[in-house]
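Field notebook, page 264. I keep forgetting to write these up properly, so this time I am using the form the group agreed on. The chain and the ligand, NDP, are recorded exactly as supplied. Prediction of the bound pose follows.
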Amino acid sequence: MDLGLKDKVAVITGGSVGIGLAIARALAAEGVHVALCARNQERVLEVARSLRDEYGVRALGVPADISRSADVERFGAEVEREFGGADLLINNAGTGSEETVMEASDERWQYYWELHVMAAVRLARALAPSMQRRGGGAILHNASICATQPLGYEPIYNVTKAALVMFSKCLANELIPFNIRVNTVNPGLVMTPDWQKTAKLLTAGKDISWEAYLDQIAKDNAPIGRFATPEEIANLFVFLCSPRASYCVGSTYYIDGGWLRTTT
Ligand code: NDP
């Protein structure tokens, strides 16, 4: 299937590992030029280099912490300078949390608000005007099934991801007159290095291997009985970016192996 994405420009936050990297690779395989940001400079520059080498696309790696408004502004300016704007924006960077509402400080809430919500607000303001100039585009938010079905140990994650879903809906209504389609993807369990690191820590010195520990989590939660690969999630992102998804506007798409326990 020709997805009609060749020579588009995609901006991906957190494109250096995990789901963001899989999205960057899948888009580059479609001939999309990419701009990635992440905090770890060495890794984001190395990923950009490997995408250039492997797919022959233009790839810009920018070290930036998107929880900081100045870094988001600088990232947007570098995209403008390098590519003259963007056609696609994937707000992917984010991370889990662990706290109780009673014990978490205001600062902790504020950090996750900046990371999960304000980064998306600021990048929309920075990049939507160029999408409009270029005839339209697509903005995708990587939220989580936790936006709807909360996990008990991470209330701040659940709340800020839920806010991101509502932001996405509001932005979709505001930008569709300019042919910019905005949607959200809510993944379930996705096997990324972060999950593996946590599992190794939790099983160190115990009778269970980290692989068996993760396998049990999948079997206990997702009817499909396994984690998704980042590539399986990336496939949905790429489709939603493409003109093949031309009637997909303002929606939230779950990709969770059946984990969501409701029909909405
Ligand atoms: P990873 O931890 O594997 O990767 C996160 C990426 O974001 C890295 O490139 C990281 O690079 C970057 N990043 C993190 N914080 C910042 C920041 N402040 N500024 C810039 N870049 C940042 O995460 P996943 O691939 O697992 O998750 C990606 C998204 O998917 C997240 O939003 C997550 O909430 C969501 N998700 C993940 C699920 C899962 O099971 N894995 C399930 C549902 C949703 P660096 O550290 O160098 O900054």
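OBSERVATIONS:
- The pocket of NDP is lined by residues 13-14, 16-20, 37-40, 43, 64-67, 92-95, 115, 142, 144, 187, 189-190, 192-194 (CB under 6 Å).
- The mean pLDDT is 97.
FOLLOW-UP: compare against the apo run.
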